[in-house]
Amino acid sequence: MEFTYSTVVNAGLSDVFAWHGRPGAMARLTPPWLPVRVLQEANSLQDGQAVLGLPGGLRWVAVHQPASYDPPNMFADELESCPLGAVLSWRHRHQFAEAGEAGERATIVTDAVDTTLPDRMLRPMFAYRHRQLADDLAAQARARATCPDPLTVAVTGSGGLIGTALTALLTTGGHRVIRLVRRPPRNSEERQWRPEEPAPTLLSGVDALVHLAGASIGGRFTPDRKREIADSRILPTRRLAELAAATAADPKTPKTPKTPDIPGLRAFVTASAIGFYGPDRGEEILTEASSRGAGFLADVVADWEDAAAPAAAAGIRTVQVRTGIVQTPRGGMLRLLTPLFEAGLGGRLGSGTQWLAWIGLDDLLDIYLRAVTDPHLSGPVNAVAPEPVRNIDYTRTLARVLHRPALLPVPAFGPRLLLGAEGAAELVQASQYVRPEALIGAGHHFRQPHLEQALRHLFGRR
Question: Among 253, 243, 251, 238, which residue's Cα sits nearest to residue 200?
Answer without folding.
Answer: 243
